[in-house]
Amino acid sequence: MYCCCWGTFLCFQSLLTFNEWLKKWLLVFPHFCLGRGLIDMAMNQAVTDVYARFGEEYTKDPFRWDFVGKNIFFMLVEGFVYFTLNVLIQYRFFLDHWLSDYKQTVVQDEDDDVAEERQRIYMGGSKKDILQIRDLSKTYVGRKRAAVDRICVGVPTGECFGLLGVNGAGKTTTFKMLTGDTDVSFGEAAVAGYSILTEIHDVHQNMGYCPQFDAIDELLTGREHLYLYARLRGVPESEIPKVAEWGIQKLGLTEYAGCSAGTYSGGNKRKLSTAIAMIGCPALVLLDEPTTGMDPHSRRFLWNAIMSVIQDGRAVVLTSHSMEECEALCTRLAIMVNGTFKCLGTIQHLKYKFGDGYVVTMKINAAKASLSPELEPVESFMESSFPGCVQREKHYNTLQYEIASSSLARIFQLVVANKDRLSIEDYSVSQTTLDQVFVNFAKQQMGEDEDVTLHRRTARKDMKILPVKGK
Ligand SMILES: Nc1ncnc2c1ncn2[C@@H]1O[C@H](COP(=O)(O)OP(=O)(O)OP(=O)(O)O)[C@@H](O)[C@H]1O
């Protein structure tokens, strides 16, 4: 019995000590200080009431240190400390220091156009560009590999810059960093001279964004959306109806402008999202796959709207999985793989540099109607005239070759000169499509986690499906 009581007492003592210790340590939380202070004051009032019932006076100074004084003191100190901490976090004070290692790693195996653009940005050559991106990077928490890895680009006025890449390449993450939707892990970017790190409100004033998934309110009509966003963008009240009507006309939404957006088809929602991005004439318009789900007519309508933005001397950054769209709109483009730019330049330049050269298709005549066309002479002619050419297809009377290292004029010259001798009925010469260039790069994203470098034409053949050698 004695032991049991002694044990309980000891346990009680240690609990009391623990309680005292906890009451001290929990003072670092302002919520605890406030709560504890209020409880102590309430208890003090209860004790005063009890004393009063017995006709005695009980007064205790509430500001005493061991009463509410320490709680008030800690709350004051914490208010100052936490506010300072908040400001430092807001302005990325710690992040910049923690991530300083990022700066020191060198980008390896970079395409020369991408490296040239990087140098241009480093040397300050993009000062006049509407969008300047310098080493912009993002690594999501829990991810080993960066979703966006030190990309550099400058987009001048009057340019439509295309950002291509397979799913997961990092296009949307880039947009999210530019719009402030997600934190930047490293690097910086500026829109119309305003930094996305420190002047995001000014950035928003100069930027329109059409996100990949329509951010629209199902209950508002198309017109109401445009009114709302025009107001948010700071369009003067008297001009809002005019601006909203402009958006409705521009994107062909006249018929649906009065209907609630919840009833819109997928394509019309995209149109509305694009109209919202364009409202108020921002200097930079970011469009994340704006034509997804649109019919060809609407798509062309939207292309015209995008063209008018470029002609206005503003800039557009566009992501799309339609090469046709990129060919129609983009003045320059970059293909993103695993968060990095693998190539950058005009479409023609990329086709020439990374494309498979030219594709020659020939139809061969039979010497007599009863005989099969003779393909061997044409095959030996192609192999001797264009060493290294690759036979892509061989059918009954058709041959198709891929010629990497020859000029268009030489191909025409040789084929025309030997046309009759080789019984070539007709032929066509076409350049590599942007699709082929894209597919070559896309293979890298689908491959191993480790980056694979794509070199110019010499290395390109390694990546191709083996040609048909149907002899
Ligand atoms: N919130 C997130 N948390 C963790 N990882 C993410 C998050 N968002 C994107 N990622 C990862 O970052 C990488 C890039 O994704 P992102 O959405 O930017 O690609 P994308 O090029 O826009 O693809 P898509 O063409 O499908 O839109 C992917 O590997 C993706 O899984």
Give an account of the 3D structure.
- The protein is α/β, with parallel strands linked by helices and 471 residues long.
- Among the domains are: 80 residues, no CATH class; 165 residues, P-loop containing nucleotide triphosphate hydrolases (Rossmann fold); 76 residues, Alpha-Beta Plaits (2-Layer Sandwich).
- It has 18 helices and 14 strands.
- Strands 6-7-8-3-9-10 form a six-stranded mixed sheet, sandwiched between helices. It has a four-stranded antiparallel sheet with strand order 2-1-4-5. Strands 12-13-11-14 form a four-stranded antiparallel sheet, covered by helices on one side.
- Helix 9 packs across helix 10.
- The longest helix has 26 residues.
- The C terminus is likely disordered.
- Adenosine-5'-triphosphate binds next to helix 7.
Lay out the secondary structure.
Blueprint: H1 2-25, H2 30-53, H3 65-90, H4 93-98, H5 100-104, H6 112-122, E1 131-138, E2 148-155, E3 160-165, H7 171-179, E4 186-191, E5 194-195, H8 200-205, E6 207-210, H9 222-232, H10 240-250, H11 266-278, E7 284-288, H12 296-311, E8 315-319, H13 323-329, E9 332-337, E10 340-345, H14 347-354, E11 358-364, H15 376-385, E12 390-394, E13 398-403, H16 408-418, E14 424-431, H17 434-446, H18 457-460
Parallel strand pairs: 3-8, 3-9, 6-7, 7-8
Antiparallel strand pairs: 1-2, 1-4, 4-5, 9-10, 11-13, 11-14, 12-13
Helix pairs in contact: 2-3, 9-10
Bound molecules: adenosine-5'-triphosphate (ATP).
